[in-house]
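User: Hey, my collaborator sent me this sequence without any context and asked if I could get a structure. I don't really work with proteins. Can you help?
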Amino acid sequence: MAIRRISSGGAFEPKVGYCRAVVAGDWIHVAGTVAAPETDTGEPALGAAAQCASALTIIENALREAGAGFADVVRVSYMLPAAAEFEACWPALRAAFGDNPPAATMIECGLIDPKYRIEIEVTAYKPSP
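Assistant: No problem. I've predicted the 3D structure and written it out in structure-token form, which is a compact way to encode the shape of the chain:
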């Protein structure tokens, strides 16, 4: 089975020693993803909903590079420091996954930095043609 690693160019990838996604055969594992820093401030957008949209964009790009899309996602985990913030994310999540809903888990937990309000991790399955 061939393994291919995909980098998003994020600052933490080389510092920590991970990549955005790993394609292993027909499986695509996308690392936990937080919002990208805003160009003008260098900080993530404020609020879980805006950060969710940003993280989904990063995930979508990694999936696309792997030859897949949100329709191929079979498992998603959402991690938030405050469960009460999750509902604000539902519209963006429904837009991404609504037509092909994956199995999902939402976990309330501490994230690596309190400025992050959501982290999303997905697993996709894309059979070879």
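In plain terms: The chain has three helices and six strands. You can pass these tokens on to your collaborator as they are.
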